Amino acid sequence: MKARVTVMLKEGVLDPQGEAVRHALGALGFDGVEGVRQGKVIELDLAEGTTEERVREMCERLLANTVIESYRIES
Amino acid sequence: MKARVTVMLKEGVLDPQGEAVRHALGALGFDGVEGVRQGKVIELDLAEGTTEERVREMCERLLANTVIESYRIES
Predict the structure, then answer these.
(1) Which domains does chain B have, with CATH numbers?
(2) Which PANTHER family does the record associate with it (chains A, B) (predicted)?
(3) Is A68 left (phi over 0), alpha (psi -120 to 50) or beta?
(4) On the CB side of A72, how many CA atoms lie within 13 Å of its CA?
């Protein structure tokens, strides 16, 4: 089975990577880019029967820094 | 309007970041993790009326390295 975890910086946490992308898009002439947030996506190929609870545990322990990041799991 | 771009390394391109995560999950005792691919997700806050074609152009010119990465746009 597959699971996809998306990890984003929480609202209010400064995102310099996103800011750099926003700035670069402007410099390339793309107008109207009002905000950019960059995060990561982790695609997991898991043994059958792995529960979402188990994936949540992976997020809490390794994949996300829950002090500054939020995560979302899709199966 | 919002658009979300997901950028992943193409199949067959070595993903050392994903491998590192897979290894770390194993070391933490998470069994059954058969594969991990890590990519990035870019959330764009765009002026109303920005076309998907325009977002595609942003991907081609900046957000993805299309030699080794594939991208997907969701609005």
Answers:
(1) 2-74 (3.30.1280.10)
(2) PHOSPHORIBOSYLFORMYLGLYCINAMIDINE SYNTHASE SUBUNIT PURS (PTHR34696)
(3) alpha
(4) 9
CB contact at 8 A, A71 and A6: yes
Q: Please tell me the distance from the alpha carbon of residue B65 to that of residue B16, in angstroms, as a whole number.
A: 17
What averages of pLDDT result for each successive group of 10 residues across chain B (75 residues)?
A: 97 97 98 97 97 97 98 95
Sign of CA dihedral A26, A15, A8, B34: positive
Q: Do B41 and A41 touch (CB under 8 A)?
A: yes
pLDDT in tens, B15-26: 999 999 999 999
Q: Which of residues 7-66 of A touch B (CB under 8 A)?
A: 8, 18, 21, 24-25, 28, 30-47, 50, 54, 57-58, 61-63
Three-state SS across B34-60? EEEEEEEEEEEEECCCCCHHHHHHHHH
Centroid of chain to Cα A55: 15
Q: Which of A24, A25, A62 sits opposite B24 (nearest CB)?
A: A62
